[in-house]
Amino acid sequence: MKMIGVIGGMSRVSSAEYYKLMNEMVEERPGGLHSAKILMYSIEFAEFTDIPRRFRKVQSSFDWKPLRNTMIDSAERLKRGGAYFIIRCSNTLHSSADDIEKKVKIPVLHIAGATGEKIRERALKIVGLPGTEYTMEEDFYRKRLEEKFGIKVIILVCTEIPLLVKQKDVEIPLFDMMTIHAEAAVKYALGDE
């Protein structure tokens, strides 16, 4: 099994959920006790904004360059620690996926790519995905879905929403991006991609 490098910390909730999901998925393998090989680097997201937590609107309150530099540094640390590839426990943090791949020379398993595969399996061409203001305004998620999968996006994503809204709660198809991404990471780590 390849080591999964995880950049967490933007939300402890999604970071913990990713860890749990990946280990549960690996644990299902037959033949004994199994755990995912995970190396996590948790960034202190509050260092990048001075807005009180409950009022935080990160996307409009600070310069993203220091955060991008920290994520590149985090990826370098994970690579030195033996990570074979990187995932991020936040949709918003995927805005720098290309920067990490170019500068650190390590694959980044993008959440939009994993989600796009699942959407394509359902043969959907237009999707609505609720999310943070920054993620909806920037094109890093939408552009990847449109260019790689031909999927038109009308609203974008938030990793924690699937913790609140389940398929049983609504009649339209839901795509749990966090679970989809965690599953893609486990498949990649196991060589099943």
Automatic annotation (TrEMBL):
It holds the Pfam family Asp_Glu_race. One of its GO terms (molecular function) is amino-acid racemase activity. Transmembrane segments: none annotated. It comes from the Archaea. Keywords: Isomerase. Belongs to the aspartate/glutamate racemases family. This is Aspartate racemase. It comes from Methanolacinia petrolearia (strain DSM 11571 / OCM 486 / SEBR 4847).
